[in-house]
Write a structure and sequence with these properties.
Layout lengths: L2 H14 L4 E2 L1 H8 L3 H9 L6 E2 L5 E4 H8 L7 H21 L1
Helix pairs in contact: 1-2, 2-3
């Protein structure tokens, strides 16, 4: 990656921090993917987006953040805790019968 490309990326990331409505290039920089990938996600209706009267695609930064965080993966400790709770509850059910 050239210095010019790196500077453009830094500028884009800085502008994202103050803007609420983003264009495709800014959304791509925020998500860390290419603009082409963003366009594919838009055409597949995977990424939340808006179209203005001119047909331009825009994004709300907060919705992109929510989209990124849509599925939380539990930690190993949380999984073990859920498993222990499940075993205890099943044992109690069995003892009541």
């Amino acid at each position: 990656m050239s210095i010019e490309e790196r500077l453009e990326r830094i500028e884009a990331l800085l502008s994202i921090g103050v803007k609420e409505v983003l264009n495709v290039r800014e959304a791509a920089a925020m998500l860390g993917i290419s603009a082409d990938r963003v366009r594919h996600l838009v055409s597949d209706k995977v990424l939340p987006h808006y179209r203005n009267a001119a047909g331009r695609v825009t994004f709300l930064r907060s919705e992109l953040t929510d989209w990124c965080l849509a599925t939380r993966v539990p930690t190993q400790k949380e999984i073990e805790s859920q498993a222990a709770t499940y075993v205890v509850l099943k044992q109690r059910q069995k003892n009541r019968q």
